[in-house]
Amino acid sequence: xxxxxxxxxxxxxxxxxxxSTSRHWRTPHRQQEAIELLTLLVERYEQxxxxxxxxxxxxxxxxxxxxxxxxxxxxxxxxxxxSAVSMFLAGQRKLTLKQVQxxxxxxxxxxxxxxx
Length: 116
Description:
By secondary structure, the chain is an all-alpha fold. Helix content is 55%, strand content 0%. It folds into two domains: 2-49, no CATH class; 57-114, lambda repressor-like DNA-binding domains (434 Repressor (Amino-terminal Domain)), CATH 1.10.260.40. The chain has six helices and no strands. α1 runs antiparallel to α2. The longest helix is centred in the N-terminal third of the chain and has 22 residues, at 28-49.
């Protein structure tokens, strides 16, 4: 595991803390390793305590509409027709590849955000 290898490289265990006055910790290489270790620890903590739920495409589009002050009619260029927008938002229709590409371009988000 990457986390353990960083801890071993830095000679840390749960009872040790780096001393701010120690020369050992002043080298750029050691500082970079310590930063990477802290980053991994924070990521692990966040994944455990604050997981990000997977959102479906309908939820994502509804969120974008709401937070950008849009209406369904504003998305007609991405969907083709107003009924296509309505059917998608009602969960009656899935997005086509072209609609995914259009939404991705409009909102400047990766296409996989719109694929559920």
